[in-house]
């Protein structure tokens, strides 16, 4: 293969479209775990004024990549080896795949709150992960933000710009927050509920009530969770690729990692986690990958 793309989210599929149209031999290994598949509907994607669901967007991109000759296989890449003479060997589904270049588009996995039926709640839009994507839709609502450990104060303040009714819920876990940050939230009118949650009531298409362990009850229109992301960068870091403290890959110009021939795009890269950003990064990476290889012979 000219290029092996690992991951079939927006970044991986964009790279496949570009590389196939560059007339490159490109293979995509799809683990089926793209964060985009969890998006019930996004109004943040340019060109979709009525909104677009993550599964529908991925299906359209997959169809487009296949249309131009990209190959997409289900499976997981268990190991990636850099060859001394250049290029890589990837082990996937019991087979070894030789590729001159590799684009890592494995993304990340949101840390789920300890709540029953949370995956179904996310797919139904009852629990949300990305205020950058959809906080506009909850203007003026009564909103809860699940957070523990190192609370993302900036995320809470971002939500506070859309509603005056915002609560941070810790689910009974410890909240590691300096006094000045806690005071900052207090001054912004954000209340902090550190009592454990005993359960919740779902009413139709919304979470009706949160029942606290002490017997109290709270109601919210929308719930966000900010418990962090587990970045799936292990294939790259095992080769010595540079990453930050959270495991997100640090890339140079043209989405190059610190490992020659290894590129990365999307949520696996340090930066803003957005579908549009992933698409742009993948376009840059694919164009650079194409230019780094001998150009194919013209047809005929």
Topology:
Elements (H helix, E strand, L loop, with lengths): L2 E4 L3 H12 L4 E5 L23 H14 L3 E4 L2 E6 L5 E5 L2 E5 L1 E4 L3 E3 L7 H6 L3 E2 L2 H4 L7 E5 L2 E2 L2 H8 L4 E5 L5 E2 L2 H9 L3 E3 L3 E7 L2 E7 L4 E2 L3 E4 L3 E3 L2 H4 L24 E3 L10 H18 L8
Parallel strand pairs: 1-2, 1-7, 2-3, 7-20, 9-18, 10-12, 10-18, 11-13, 12-14
Antiparallel strand pairs: 4-5, 5-6, 8-19, 15-16, 16-17
Q: What distinguishing features does this structure have?
A:
300 residues; alpha/beta; five-stranded parallel β-sheet; 8 helices; elongated
Structural account:
With 300 residues, the chain is an alpha/beta fold. The chain has helices spanning 10-21, 54-67, 118-123, 131-134, 153-160, 179-187, 234-237, 275-292, and strands spanning 3-6, 26-30, 71-74, 77-82, 88-92, 95-99, 101-104, 108-110, 127-128, 142-146, 149-150, 165-169, 175-176, 191-193, 197-203, 206-212, 217-218, 222-225, 229-231, 262-264. The strands form six sheets. A five-stranded parallel β-sheet has the order 3-2-1-7-20, with helices on one face. A five-stranded parallel β-sheet has the order 9-18-10-12-14. A three-stranded antiparallel β-sheet has the order 4-5-6, with no helix packed on it. Helix 1 (10-21) packs parallel to helix 8.
